[in-house]
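Lesson 9: reading folded outputs for more than one chain in a single document. The general rule is that every protein is listed as its sequence immediately followed by its structure tokens, and records are never interleaved. Here is the first one.
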Amino acid sequence: MSSELQSQMSTIQSDPTTAVAKLKEFDAKLKTATDEVTNPDVHDAANGFEGSFSKLVTQLEAFAKDPQSADSAALQSSISDVQQSTQDMSKVCG
């Protein structure tokens, strides 16, 4: 999954529509995987990550549709939220 995510993030500038579509697919897989986590601590951390990632995809989609009117502050905030939720998940999962 990690290589799939990296691939689409690098494609966002050259083909944003396709990249966003693939990121949405990734997000759906992430949601399914998160729903299957049974450890409550891990589930909470994974759920936080999935939620922040989903918001980031929404912001990237807005940017891909119209870069001039996209809310860059919201995009930056979504990126920060993903970074924080990744750190939170790393703490729980070691």
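And here is the second record, again sequence then tokens.
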Amino acid sequence: MIHTADTPHTDKTDPAHRFLLVWRNPDTGRSQCVGHVAADEDSWQLHYTATAATHPIPGFTGLRQFPNTRATYHGTGLFPFIKQHTMHRGKLDYDEAIRELGLDPSTATAVDEIIRSTGRRLTSPFFLVEQPVEHRGRLRGHFLLSGVDRIPQEEIHLETTPVRVGRSLHERTLTSIKPHDRLFVLPEVRDEKQRQPLLVCANHNGTTVPVGRIPDYLVPPFHNLIEKTGDAKVFAHHVNSPGTVSHLRVLMLLDTPAPPCNPFEGL
């Protein structure tokens, strides 16, 4: 059952997991947060961001099932988007695909799967990213490392002199990363008038090697977090083999001291 309301729905049994609804502009390739979803296996809630609700975004029309960007939607059961963007247990390759996400096929839920995969589909511009939340003084949340395939193809502006990361060094570094390894978020020096893209780097035999980037839709809150706390501690949570599609290669975990205000809630 689906309901709509003009104000956020509150309930003693509000869903436990928080997600950012991200929309990828098919014309520009840029992604931005356009909504917030709370969901578990039994209930869900969706509301769009203030920007999406009050400022027209070229090309953006909202989810087909939930087109009113000023409404708050909520319902029981599994959030329809998650149901549509996760795998059916009956698929022949289900177990293999779930293990590739670092999950146990016998216990993994659809919500577990969406946290690990984001539910990206070639047929849809939308996907879900776990929203970092505060728990016992720590800000924690998972995200997929972005731009893994592009790092060896581009000049990297890690310091004042642009450098290139060779494909061999990049792959050796990725292969050496183990779960729980600390990685480092560093600004990529480009246009000083704008907030810089953020590189994610690993220490490989004493050398700082860029392996990917913070996704563009998470760059503003990461900058905010770094400005408030001086750091954003990130760790490798699950690392896939070289044959995996690049956007699933490394699942990251943000686990860092929480600032007074969660910058990811203001997207």
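What the second record shows: The mean pLDDT is 89.
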